[in-house]
Amino acid sequence: MELKKVVRDLKVVQTIHLNRRHFILELLAPDKLPLILPGQFSQALVTGSPSTFLRRPFSIHSVDYGRNTLRLLVQIKGEGTRHLSLLKAGDTLNLIYPLGNSFSLPATKDVLLVGGGCGVAPLLFLAQFLNQNNIHPTILLGFRTSEEVSEIEEYSKYGKVLVTTDDGTAGEKGLVVDHPVLQRESIPFKKIFCCGPDAMMKAIARMAWMHKTDCEVSLENTMACGFGVCLCCVTPTDKGNERVCMEGPVFNINRLKWR
Q1: Are 54 and 151 within one domain?
Q2: What's phi and psi for 112, nearest 5 deg?
Q3: Which residue of 92, 127, 161, 226 has the fewest CB atoms within a 10 Å radius of its CB?
Q4: Would the pTM count as exceeding 0.90?
């Protein structure tokens, strides 16, 4: 199902700084929000930043249809995202949304969500969606250090939250793939949804194959246009090179050339 895409100037309701590297933009749409599914993303136009020429892609972090707002979770990586971090209530941000495909609705309730770094961004919306369908997932979140651990209370509304940090300052020490819940002869999950750095997703994919667990990942390939024209975000699949912005960003791991 291809959903309606719109280009709109959204008003900034608030900018929430979670830590030195991450912030949330809460945005108010000027008209009724279109249907948005978990895993879809937006392309933001960065104005006032002379070195930023292309729109920047951001996963939809959460949606509130009652308030007609959506949230984006952003990591400061360069001049464009730094400029966005300076937006204040009342400013506007031009978005193209919703773009790409979405995570599927699983037929099981034994579900694990795995996110690392800013790859946690689409998982809050996914957890909300699953709850609306009477699924309460286990949510495994990986961070570099305790200073970057954030929104645990929000995720906890929708499922059991587990945390890892690289340095062991919060939760289990190590990477998400090292968490005890995954270090079992038989893991208690029949479906895994994952987003984060490529190395992390590939490690989770190997584990899913080993346990014969169905798994979907959301890829974070570099994008320019976001709607299938520039072809800079292609990834090899069982059907040849496919555009992450159109055929993705969500792929079942069995379709990717990762084995």
Answers
A1: no
A2: -120, 130
A3: 92
A4: yes
